[in-house]
Amino acid sequence: AQSTPEWFVAKPIARLGGPGLIPVSYVEIRYVRTKEVVPNAVEAVKRAGVPSVEEWKRMAANYKNSSITLGKFAGPDAGGQRAVEQGMESMSLQEGRQSAQNGSQHRAGQHSISQSQQYAHNQEITPVYAPVEAWIPRYCFAEDKYWFVIQAILEDGRYWELSRYYEDFYDFQIALLNQFPSEAGHSGTTKRSLPYMPGPVSYVTDVITEARLHNLDAYVKSLLAQPDYVSKCDLVKKFFAPREGDYEITPNSVEGKTRLSQGSQPSA
Hints:
Blueprint: E1 2-4, E2 7-10, E3 20-23, H1 41-48, H2 53-66, H3 79-94, H4 113-120, E4 131-142, E5 145-154, E6 159-164, H5 166-179, H6 206-224, H7 228-231, H8 234-240, E7 247-249
Antiparallel strand pairs: 1-2, 2-3, 4-5, 5-6, 6-7
């Protein structure tokens, strides 16, 4: 399917997972017989009649409704079909607000609406405080995973060093856009005021993570510059609330507080 002129929606066939976004510029179209590259990919896509997301969802629903039930593989517990539907719902949410500038790819249905809602309504037992200042001085890598170090000052005056994966930021961003649709620019009457964050990619490297470091640093600073009803909402409080592995630091141990973040590009 095609989300916007800049984005395709595709589902992997070599592994499990739901559909995701792929930049059109990343796709090379070739003639089946000659294997030569199609000179005008845009026209080729138009001639092929690639469906929109909504058309894709309707076709998927029609296929499901016309399918013959075979034992216990059918019905509400059919996990593969449910993953596709949730992934397409997530893609619909992002239509119109994805930018091709990042050249990014959404990973297989990883961030569905239900995950965002669960994240937004997750209950915390301990009191949580809103962050008053935050910055990202560095990132770390271990066991094939990158994560970002956030140093934050909370309302109670305590300094914390928080560790967050990129996926934590992405889940938070989707939940934030859902909670504040007007500020996200989805109402059609107001301009978007919520900050952008770098979009997902299929393969993460040191170079990409370094760029994300600068972009996410600018993102958290812009986030905390929002009006109080956004910057101090429960969703923001929970994202910056200390979790297992986070620890309190002294004011003298902070680093990179005055580092300027540059090169931020919009995506999600």
